[in-house]
Design goal:
The chain is of the alpha+beta class and 178 residues long. The chain has one domain (21-176). The chain is built from four helices and twelve strands. The protein has helices at residues 40-45, 91-97, 128-132, 142-150; strands at residues 6-10, 15-18, 21-25, 28-32, 36-37, 49-50, 70-75, 104-105, 118-126, 154-155, 164-170, 173-176. Strands 3, 4, 5, 6, 7, 8, 9, 10, 11 and 12 form a ten-stranded mixed β-sheet that branches. Strands 1-2 form a two-stranded antiparallel ribbon. The radius of gyration is 16 Å and the shape is globular. It starts with 5 loop residues before the first strand and ends with a strand.
Length: 178
């Protein structure tokens, strides 16, 4: 049995090639590995292992002293694009084009001293009013997202309060580009 992210195993060279997933942090492209998640849907979408024990980790305390998690910003729906237009982002887009949802990370290694590879999934969607006004665009860093949340343009699914879903994903960032 092999993890879903394994692309190639070379026993002669004793190497394993793993598939990385693209994301964004502070407007820069990052690449990450997904090892496990406490939710079956998240584990499937991240091509990782289901690990219900991660539910024991306390969520909703990002950037506080002794927090075991960082926030991970995910959009429920977005302009679905088979040709990967520059504005593509979100779960629907990832399912249709297979290019990954381009989730947005908070602090990452070399940028944040409180980095953790355990990510507390914050799921959001643009309000109908925001879409009508043309506010919907690709956001690339957490402070942009939190600003739109504060102004009421992004909410949790179905208009619920924005914040932690309780879903934890162990997905360490391994590369920051540019």
């Amino acid at each position: 049995m092999v993890h879903d992210k394994v692309v190639k195993i070379d026993p002669d060279k004793m190497t394993v090639t793993l598939k990385l997933t693209p994301g964004l942090s502070f407007a820069r492209l990052v690449m990450y590995l997904s090892f496990d998640a406490n939710d079956p849907v998240a584990a499937t979408l991240e091509e990782s292992t289901l690990a219900p024990g991660l539910s024991e980790i306390q969520v909703g305390r990002d950037d506080s002293a002794f927090s075991a998690v960082e926030r991970f910003f995910v959009f429920a729906h977005w302009a679905v694009s088979k040709d990967k237009k520059p504005q593509r982002l979100g779960l629907n887009s990832a399912i249709v084009d297979g290019g990954g949802p381009l989730n947005i990370f908070g602090g990452i290694p070399t940028i944040a001293t409180d980095y953790s590879p355990m990510w507390d999934l914050n799921l959001g969607e643009w309000t109908q009013e925001a879409v009508k006004r043309g506010y919907r665009s690709r956001l690339t860093e957490k402070f942009q997202i939190l600003g739109f949340v504060q102004r009421g343009w992004i909410t949790g699914p179905g208009g619920k309060k924005y914040g932690s879903t309780g879903i934890i994903i162990n997905c360490p960032v391994v590369m920051r580009l540019l």
